[in-house]
Amino acid sequence: MIEMDDVRDLVDPVVIAAFEGWNDAGDAASSVIDHLMEVWNAEVIGAIDPEDFYDFQMNRPTVEVGPDGHRRIGWPSTQIAIASPPGLDRDVILIRGLEPNMRWRQFCAELLAACDDLGGSLVITLAALLADTPHTRPLPVTGSATEPELVDRLRVEQSSHEGPTGIVGVFQDACGKLDIPAVSYWVAVPHYVAQPPCPKASLALVHELEDLLGCAIPLGDLPEDSRAWERGVDELAEEEEEIAEYVRALEETRDTADLPEASGEAIAREFERYLKRRDSE
Q1: What is the predicted pLDDT for the residue at 94?
Q2: 234: number of CA atoms within 13 Å, CB side?
Q3: Distance from C-alpha of 74 to C-alpha of 98, rounded to nearest angstrom
Q4: How far apart are alpha carbons 135 and 193 in whole angstroms?
Q5: In Å, what is the CA distance from 198 to each residue of 60, 124, 188, 249?
Q6: According to the UniProt entry, where is the signal peptide (predicted)?
Q7: Which of 70, 74, 76, 82 is nearest to 16 (CA)?
Q8: CB 226 within 8 A of CB 200
Q9: pLDDT band with cut points at 50, 70 and 90 for residue 224
Q10: In the structure, what pLDDT confidence band is assigned to residue 65 with cuts at 50, 70 and 90?
Q11: What torsion, rounded to 10 degrees, do the Cα atoms 163, 179, 27, 141 define?
């Protein structure tokens, strides 16, 4: 069981989760949780005991110096936090941690039991994968859900992936088996710039959260960081003609495809985000 601090009664909380590792290309998904923790002033209320789930030779503990000047060990783990975002009529449970090395089903069961104790009514998982997508175009986001009604609300390209999965896929499957409504968003990160961070991918995931939750999320430095990231990749591509040619080929493929990002519906969604953010400001 996960030991948690005493928590006030939460209002119809939604769970938003991301895990470092295989599901987190460019650290795009876990960076979204970090961003939400900051802009929503989230409070950490508990953490899973790492002893049963992590191989400490693969995810080594770290030596840290506390505010009192004493050295202590920081263990790799998965934390649970809560927040009450302004402009949203429900609370949020944030889960942020590492993909476990073992006992995945028990790991998911303990996290979902903690979410159930807190009253979590909807689970949203965030993830990122490497893909053949150009950095100069909107980074595509695919989605999946455990219930038909959620599929209709997603309004994103449905994932058709078959093959290996990570803890995000297992976590969503566990939600389905427990009849917990769950949504999963995956953003594509250009594989030729896989090194983290990837703020453009994080920003794409934040926009999907805004659409699903129906509220504006403070973006902070994400838009400017995204533009700076794209400019930096442009400069790298200009230095290597082979990379530049490859990027142009990817652009041509994207530009000739029937892209949901270029549809009237996508433009309307972007305008709705703008209006919500203007009203909240």
Answers
A1: 98
A2: 8
A3: 14
A4: 8
A5: 24, 20, 10, 21
A6: none
A7: 82
A8: yes
A9: very high
A10: confident
A11: 70
- Residue 115 CA to residue 112 CA, distance in Å, equals 5
pLDDT band at 55 (very low <50, low <70, confident <90, very high): very high
Residue reference for tokens 């695919």: 142
Q: What is the pLDDT of residue 53?
A: 95
140: left (phi over 0), alpha (psi -120 to 50) or beta: beta
Rounded Cα–Cα distance for residues 160 and 34 (Å): 28
pLDDT level of residue 126 (50, 70, 90 thresholds): very high
* Pair of tokens at residue 213: 């939750």
Residues in the chain: 281
Give the Cα-Cα-Cα angle 42, 44, 49 (nearest 5 degrees). 150
Residues whose CB falls within 8 Å of the CB of residue 244, separated by 6 or more in sequence, listed in order: 237, 238
Digit-coded pLDDT (tens) for 71-123 = 989 889 999 999 999 989 999 999 999 999 999 999 999 999 999 999 999 99
Instruction: Name the β-bridge partners of 65.
Output: 71
Return all residues near 177 (Cβ < 8 A) that are at least 6 apart.
none
Decide if 186 contacts 143 (C-beta within 8 A). Answer: yes
- Residues paired with 38 in a beta bridge: none
Could you tell me the two tokens for 51? 């002893």
